[in-house]
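Whether sequence alone determines local backbone shape is best considered at the level of individual chains. When preparing material for the folding task, we compiled for one chain both its residues and its backbone structure tokens. The sequence in question and its structure tokens are set out directly beneath this paragraph.
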Amino acid sequence: MSMNNSPSVFLDPNANRFQVNVINESHGHDNSATSQEDTDPPHYEETSFADEAHNRLRISFRPGTRQLYDNFLQNGDTAKPDANIHPYDTHSNTYYLQTFGHNTMDPIPKIDYYRNTGSISGVKISRPSLLEIHEQLAKNIAVNPGSIDRVANGEGTPGDDVTANKEEENKGGFVKFGWVKGVLVRCMLNIWGVMLFIRLSWIIGQAGIGGAYYLISRSLGPEFGGSIGLIFAFANAVAVAMYVVGFAETVVELLKSSNAMMVDESNDIRIIGSITIVILLGISVAGMEWEAKAQVILLIILLVAIINFFIGTVIPTSNEKRARGFFNYQASIFAENFGPGFRDGEGFFSVFAIFFPAATGILAGANISGDLEDPQSAIPKGTMLAILITTIAYLGVAICAAACVVRDATGNVNDTVVSGTNCNGSSACALGYDFSSCKSQPCAYGLMNDFQVMSMVSGFGPLITAGIFSATLSSALASLVSAPKVFQALCKDNIYKALHFFAKGYGKNNEPIRGYILTFVIAMAFILIAELNTIAPIISNFFLASYALINFSCFHASYAKSPGWRPAFRYYNMWVSLFGAALCCGVMFVINWWAALITYAIELFLYIYVTYKKPEVNWGSSAQALYYVNALESALALTTVEDHVKNFRPQCIVLTGAPMTRPALLDITHSFTKSNGLCICCEVYTGPRKLCVQEMNSGMAKKQAWLTKNKRKAFYAAVAADSFRDGVKSLLQASGLGRMKPNTLVLGFKKDWRNASAMQVENYVGVIHDAFDFELGLIIVRTSQGFDISQVLQVQEELEKLEQERLALETTIKDNDFEEGRYGIRGFFNKASKLSIAKHETRKDSNINTIQSIHMDEFNQRLLEANSQFKKKHGKGTIDVWWLFDDGGLTILIPYILTTQKKWKDCKLRIFTGGKVNRIEDEKLGMASLLSKFRIKFADINIICDINMKPNKESWKFFEEMIEPYRLHESCKDLTTAEKLKREAPWKITDAELEAFKEKSYRQVRLNELLQEHSRGANLIVLSLPVARKGVVSDHLYMAWLEILSKNLPPILLVRGNHKNVLTFYS
């Protein structure tokens, strides 16, 4: 990497990092900042200085050949070529012969400040602390340039203890249900569904009575909750098809027994199912209240049918029923059916998959939680009672069926046992019937073959048929209501924006008509399958996935330890929830592994989609609680970690006020804190405490939301205080958490300080002093157009309001014209009389609109420029770093971080620093060595040796004119008058003060000349911030220094670290 000022330096791929090219600073050679085109650098402000620097001879340094630097890399030895000193440097005033940096407590950058204590390559020395530079010197200590020179050179270490660090909606007319009608009835109807009447007997035959126990106990768990999204809504829609197909199967069986088939068995199921779902859709659309009344009637029929079954088991059986396998209660039959007897490739989990939809009814109440009067009480009470009642009913029916009906029967009353036949343990044979032919050919009756066993066993068969109709239709109706409600809730949350169309509701109950239609379409598609045993496993797969998520949600909420998660169920345990979730996932894969993979692939896709889209919803989820817990644990763990210089990062507190009013100040800070450090945007409210606190609290969420919306990785904080300085002081002390505390204050330059009151200037400079007192780094940012765009935003907002009012007025006029036109001739003449007025006002409005448009364009342009100056990507150019004082490395670290960001990566670092006249070569090589050890790439190093020259007369005259209104001029007045003036205006600059700091004033003016000469074409300037001694340098003099130092320049950062190392070259 070359250190030449020429443009080609950035294009030379062979340039060595430590090559130092000639910098000709003599007369006739323009040594200003390099531009990519041969054009003059931009002019940043109206005021400019007459530049005499171009007419002045300056030090010329030519290092000679590259061999010198090769030697430097190999053994560190260097030669010392001659340096030409212009006669001006031998001016009679010996002050200007002193090397820059050695006539002040501020030390120049030096490698020895960054060494470890036990370093063998050199001795570590301590730089003066920020306290020593900032505070007044003790009055009883005589300070002379020699002693200061020794300190700056590391020959003395003031304050051995300096290195010790101290860390410190209810709608009217809405129908609501209680726990009985809203939860208990619905859950029982859903659980006592199609499986109870037309599949439970088959399941008993396959799995045995012991298998049934496990199926039921593992299916009817205590899970209940609300919607879990698309999969659950889809599963409910498919469940509608399953219940309708079960109903259609029963109807087809009746048609078959009457020889009244329409086409064939499958097509008849499709036809009857299609007609049924259309009727159910009409009932659902009629409204929740009507549907709830229908559910109660259906439940009564269902209860009568179940009781009818139990009565039938004790009524003496007939020969016809015996031939079909029903023998009343027999211990031998119960023993025979107790064990499993899986056939036709069926197994425990395949049978489980068909039975499991019976358990899905447990969420029927929770699915309509929005329609319940008291969901918190109704859901657990109704669901748990429904589970208890239905479990008893299922177990009772299963035991009774298993004790009364054999697995296989021919239905032929003549298949009796011949005397002398060996029964081989067959219970039917022992009871006088020979069903052995069922082993070689299919039989139509028995638990394994007849889905209408309950009708046969019951006391009155048509009641069971009515029960089947009641169970299937009620379950189908409940699912047809649940699926659209779940889907509507999902769409209202607007998580999937493409589905928001289905969120609209109709009527006083906000019925999801569009959701009903969608559910109807999905159910119709599955009804056309016309096979219950095919549909049931599909539902089992999706419901198991849903229940796994519900269980995991309970576990996650408990694990996150959110105070808002307070489960009222006495026997709840988070680990049982986790076990339930794992069990559901495992069973899914056992039932059908490829269907489980597809289900989880769909879930993963939906999860990734929502994560990517980041919908603007706040549900107080357990994930949020866990984020908080993790963040808290990380923050606490971080407090136990010792600070290390290698892990230093700028953690900035930025005085933006409302973030949207100074976006450019936030942008430049965000450039070196994004993904790297903490950034807190701060605002201070001053005035009456009550009004301030009210305004502050009302704007908190809005301003943080603005940061999030504009993708600024920053926090917003605000305080109410008596003064700006008091507020900032509070923020500096209290902001942050543990190790995540701000270490750098960023604020904009106060451009209006000359028109501000003395108190405002005192507050601004006081903030700078406070930052140094609290040992924070400081960055003052100045741009030519400033940062505050609040007035522009205000005007823009007012113009938008005017435009809205104009549009509203036009709409009103049109409406009035329409009304007047309805009243015949009188209306016509009224309209005609207003026409000329309207035309006149239209011309007037047109002129106003034209003016407004011009102003709007102007304000928008200013807004765009102020907003985008640090947003846009910077092309090839330079960041000029004037590292004049060693502040621990913050001045060089900030520009380095900037070059790692996309917007600044094409900009090269040019380093400027002061040096001795007779040690230019050593200074340059020393800086190159220091930067290389820090692994900071640079394009150029410039050693400036004439910083302490007097500025030209025009520049100095401008400075004097600038401070003139703030001078006291006490020396030309008598003592009494002078004392009176000091009492009246203690903030003014005294003659004694101006004389005492004349050389420092010279330096600030001279630095601006050098900056104009070298860095006018830079993309950004980073400059060491001068420190004013507290209580010695007046506020207005310090502001004058900052003003003259940074005037007429590109965007500039005035940086001062806290004099503690932020860089190291040790691993």
